[in-house]
Structures are given as structure tokens and as C-alpha cells.
């Protein structure tokens, strides 16, 4: 390509414009992959450890699949000031950590009440039963997922994944 052809085609500015549009096309697909829970938990109304509180009481009911949104594990706890429905996130976190919840169990739950839909929900970050504590949510408020481990404690990586 000679100098005249380069300048007529837009030169460096033309090449940069094409690169910009190609990059924008690739990035726009990634935006749709952001989990909606992550979007919900950002900003002024999102989860903030500085606003956490601890509730303590007796388990009235535990459900691995909640009846109300958000639809994951929920526990209803009778506290000194009333009942609280706490969202525990993925029930597999409790199972993986050998934590069972049954009516009558004494628990302490660290979490925060946040706006959700037209109401509020208590998002548990750490649940404690006796001497056992299990983190079910990150400090940013995102539900944690269990990690598969082999008998020797090593993280299991599925074949073909690097």
C-alpha cells in the first residue's frame, strides 16, 4: 500500500476506528454475562460489612430451597426481638462444611439487611452453630460456592480445565 492509498483509507485514524469497533463488539457480549446478583449488590444500597449485625436465636425452620426470593437456602430464626428469615445462599456450602440446621438449634448469624425488590432481606455472611462457623457469602455480599476437593485436600480440577 502506498502513501496515497493509506491516506485515502483514513490512515492511522481509520485503523484505530476499526480496532475500536471490534473491541466494543467483543466487550458488549461480556457485559451480559455479569451475574445479576453482582449488579444488585453494588452501589449505595449494596452489601457493606460496616453495616453488618449479628442475630442470635433458635432455628424455627430451615429450607435448602427458599419459598421466597432470593431462592436459595433460608433459615427462620426466633430472636429476642422477633423472627428473622435469613438468606444463606447456596445450600451446598452448608453440606460441604457438614453443617446441618434443624428446628431448635441455637445459631448466630452475621449479615446485613438489604433492600431487595419491594422489601428487604437479611443476607447471612457467616453462620455459626456451636463451635462451627461457615462463611456463606463474601465480604462484598456475593454468595460463595463450594469447591470440590479430593480426599487429600487438593482442589479437584475437572479434566480438560487448566
Output mean pLDDT: 77
- Cross-sheet strand order for the largest sheet: 1-2-3-5-4
Task: Tell me the number of strands.
Answer: 6
Which residues sit in consecutive blocks of at least 5 with pLDDT less than 50? 28-44
Strand content: 25-35%
User: Residue share in helices?
Assistant: 10-25%
Name of the level-1 CATH class of the largest domain: Mainly Beta
According to CATH, the homologous superfamily of the largest domain is Nucleic acid-binding proteins
Outline type: globular
Question: What is the count of distinct domains?
Answer: 2
**Do you know the CATH architecture of the largest domain?**
Beta Barrel
Radius of gyration: 24 Å
Number of helices: 4
Biggest β-sheet strands, sense, barrel: 5 strands, mixed, barrel
Element pattern in H and E: HHHEEEHEEE
Query: End-to-end distance, in Å?
Result: 42 Å
What is the CATH topology descriptor of the largest domain? OB fold (Dihydrolipoamide Acetyltransferase, E2P)
Q: What is the SS-derived class?
A: alpha+beta
Can you describe this structure?
By secondary structure, this protein is an alpha+beta fold. The chain is 23% helix and 32% strand. It contains 4 helices and 6 strands, in the order H-H-H-E-E-E-H-E-E-E. The protein has a 5-stranded mixed beta barrel with strand order 1-2-3-5-4. The protein is globular, with a radius of gyration of 24 Å. The two termini are 42 Å apart. About 10% of the residues have low confidence.
Amino acid at each position: 500500500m502506498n502513501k496515497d492509498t493509506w491516506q485515502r483509507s483514513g490512515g492511522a485514524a481509520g485503523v484505530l476506528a476499526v480496532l475500536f469497533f471490534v473491541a466494543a463488539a467483543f466487550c458488549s457480549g461480556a457485559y451480559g454475562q455479569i451475574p445479576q446478583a453482582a449488579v444488585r449488590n453494588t452501589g449505595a444500597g449494596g452489601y457493606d460489612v460496616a453495616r453488618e449485625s449479628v442475630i442470635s436465636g433458635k432455628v424455627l425452620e430451615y429450607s435448602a430451597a427458599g419459598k421466597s426470593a432470593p431462592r436459595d437456602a433460608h433459615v427462620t430464626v426466633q430472636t429476642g426481638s422477633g423472627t428473622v428469615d435469613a438468606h444463606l445462599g447456596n445450600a451446598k456450602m452448608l453440606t460441604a462444611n457438614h453443617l446441618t440446621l434443624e428446628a431448635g438449634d441455637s445459631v448466630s448469624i452475621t449479615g446485613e439487611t438489604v433492600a431487595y425488590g419491594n422489601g428487604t432481606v437479611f443476607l447471612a455472611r457467616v453462620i455459626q452453630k456451636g463451635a462451627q462457623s461457615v462463611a456463606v457469602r463474601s465480604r462484598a455480599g456475593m454468595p460463595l460456592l463450594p469447591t470440590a476437593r479430593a480426599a487429600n485436600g487438593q482442589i479437584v480440577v475437572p479434566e480438560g480445565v487448566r
